[in-house]
Amino acid sequence: MNKVMMPDWKYHSYGLAGLFGFFCLWFIAGTYIPEGFFQQFTLNATLMKFFILIQDSETYIHIWMSIKRVLVGLGIALLIGIPVGLLIGQNQKADAFSSQIFQFLRMISPLSWMPIAVMILGVGDKPVYFLLAFAAVWPIILNTANGVKKVDPQLLKLAYSLDATSREILQKIIWPSVLGQVLVGLRLAIGIVWIVLVPSEMLGVSSGLGYFILDARDRLDYTELLSIILIIGFIGFILDRFVIGLQKRFAV
Q1: How far apart are CA 72 and CA 197, in angstroms?
Q2: Among candidate residues 207, 191, 151, 157, the one with its CA nearest the CA of residue 175
Q3: Is there a domain that residue 193 lies in?
Q4: Angstrom distance (rounded) from CA 3 to CA 97
Q5: What spatial distance separates the first Cα and last Cα of the chain, rounded to whole Å?
Q6: Would you say residue 164 lies in a domain?
Q7: Which of 36, 64, 105, 206 has minimal CB crowding within 10 Å?
């Protein structure tokens, strides 16, 4: 049976309806919460604090520091992951040699490296960069390698028959063919990094959304804490939409 694809506008309208429904349920649940501590978690209280926070310049300092760390971590992961993925995708021996090592390492939670990262790199941004890069590199490596393996062998044979150089084959055939898979890996990496970011920013840094949450918790301001969680969710959503846009623009 052929599956009929839903038009984009209709798909997105369902998504908006689902999001609206979620906030409606949150609002309704809040009307049944009795006076007291849990009133801090109602939608009205959270949104009021949310709008206060987005008017505060300090909030944007925390947002920028978190985004900067994410960009550095992703940049390191891309610089390592793409070349490694291209190598193991083209070389069966390299793939066989590294596959079990990579599978072993990627199953280790990045957060389990926190004590070692702090011990070696000290407190501050460096251990955060390491943890984010470690979290992001595996989907980039594996998706890049998978993209190389899916390159049409007939195109490669044709290129070799025309005496194309390795650089020309990489630029004209392999890279355009794997770009879509690289972007898939990048999207997965952003999702993982954005989750790892918050606990990573509790490693002795004095800014960032993770630190912001820790500070709100220490002040027992749980409405602000929940508002920061909303901000984290919105930024992560925007980053994901950005990569989807890149996929639509560049994927072949």
Answers
A1: 12
A2: 151
A3: yes
A4: 41
A5: 27
A6: yes
A7: 36
Place of tokens 């943890």: 131
pTM confidence score? 0.83
Residue 245, burial from CB neighbour count under 10 angstroms (0-12, 13-18, 19+):
exposed
Query: What's the pLDDT tens digit per position in 177-224?
Result: 888 888 999 999 999 999 899 888 877 788 888 889 888 888 888 888
Read off the pLDDT of residues 231-242 as tens digits, 9 standing for 90 and up.
998 898 898 888
**CATH code assigned at 226:** 1.10.3720.10
How far is the C-alpha of 193 from the C-alpha of 131, rounded, in Å? 9
Helices of type H across 32-124: 43-53, 57-90, 92-106, 114-121
**Where in the sequence is the domain holding 222, given as residue range(s)?**
57-250
How many domains, the chain? Answer: 1
Domain contains 209: yes
pLDDT of 172 reads 76
* Digit-coded pLDDT (tens) for 34-52: 665 556 677 777 888 888 8
* Residue 85 covered by a domain: yes
Cα separation values, 112 from 10, 139, 147, Å: 42, 18, 30
